[in-house]
Amino acid sequence: MRILLSFTLACSLAACQKVPPPARVPSQQESSAEHVVVNYGPSRLRLFPAPASEGRYVLWASERPGLPAVFRPLGMTEQRGPTGFVPRAGELAFVDGRIVEAPLPASPTKALSELPLLVYDKDAKTATQQMIPLPGPCSMRERALIQSDGKELFVAAGCAVEDKAMLLRLDAGLTVRASQSVAGTGTTELLLHHGDADYLLIGPTVMRVPSQGEPVLGTVPQPAGDVETRELLMAGELLLLVDGTAGRVIGMDRTSLGWKLDKRFYFEGSVQRLRAAASASRLQIVVSERGEAQKTELVGLGLSLGSVGRDTSLPQRLILGSGPVQSDHELAPVSDGKSVVLLRTHGSNSGPLVAMTVLHM
Asked: How many angstroms separate the CA atoms of 294 and 290, rounded?
């Protein structure tokens, strides 16, 4: 009886997690041959949909220091993205063939009536500032989050003092087509525009803000890491919240925000950066993790979204290679619903470079 009680207590403390399978390199079916895009290590990489190019992705990177351009186009993928795909919101977006940047706020205590955006020319050498009217005063401490499908620009400007977010929908010429102010969202961390709604992540709160009607609230566990280790994305009828530091995926009904799915995954090192891409049936994740020797490794895994409820099984970890200490990577879905494009900085014997791989994890 004492042995049984001891086992029960140990199982409870360990949450009876299954032992993860050992990490391995991907097979030829799981990863294509690596394609070297350019032989230098940019600090920022981005992969944007280009509607004028039949849904292919255009690759952009920050330019080498000392050159006149700020960003540099690296080419275009042969792979096409799914219809309506919108990449992760951040400080950069690509709309109507131009890079748009949300700059750092000039003064965190000054209430703004207009949001400044930097619009680069086609060569990304010079930028002009364009002022976008806001629906109310906004004291910003962080950059606005911007996101684009290539045709429109979606904006969430967090107003820390007012504890509001200003949500904007702009056309290709950056003219405001819709705007609203949402209370209680001044520290918005992630934005996802989908259909007629904006989804916001504020700590443990997920909010669906429709174009008309009242916001819908959902709750998730407190974040285990910073915003670079989390992702908010759509997978069919599910809204997914991926937390790389916690090793957890929560799937919510995209309308009611009620929980439908809860899955676990595992990483050995300290998660520095997470990017994810999803179809209706599968989620694929690539993280940059740092181990005890401060070495940066890219690790990928795939999770089935076919079963609902709680799942404690742990997926296979795939070792995708090492990178510079300050590395960057982006992940985007392919229209076949099974593959993803990985763009990353990569260390080599001759120095840093940018490489592209197609994964099927």
From this structure: 5
Phi then psi dihedrals of residue 177, to 5 deg = -105, -25
- The answer to whether 251 and 259 have CB atoms below 8 angstroms apart is yes
Residue 192, amino acid: L
- Tell me which of 29-33, 152-156, 200-204, 264-268 is least confident: 264-268
Q: How do beta strands 309-311 and 259-264 pair?
A: parallel
Q: Which of 187, 179, 191, 143 is nearest to 162 (CA)?
A: 187
pLDDT tens string 30-83: 999 999 999 988 889 999 998 777 889 999 999 887 787 889 899 999 999 998
236-246 residues labelled b (16+ CB within 10 A) or e (exposed): eebbbbbbbbb
- Report the C-alpha gap between 190 and 214 in whole angstroms: 20
Other beta carbons less than 10 A from residue 216's beta carbon: 18
Q: Which residues contact 145 (CB under 8 A, 6 or more apart)?
A: 89, 90, 91, 102, 155, 156, 157, 158, 188, 190, 191
Specify whether the CB–CB gap between 154 and 176 falls below 8 A: no
pTM listed for this prediction:
0.90
Contact present, 276 and 291 (Cβ < 8 Å): no
Determine the Cα–Cα distance for residues 101 and 23; give it in Å rounded to an integer: 38
Numbers of helices and strands, H then E, in the chain: 1, 28
pLDDT at 5 over 50: no
Among residues 167, 159, 180, the alpha carbon closest in space to that of 89 is found at 167
Look at the block and give the residue holding tokens 């504890």: 163
* pLDDT tens digits along 128-143: 999 999 999 999 999 9
Residue 98 to residue 224: CA distance in whole angstroms: 35
Transcribe 331-351 into DSSP letters.
Answer: EEE-TTSS-EEEEEEE--TT-
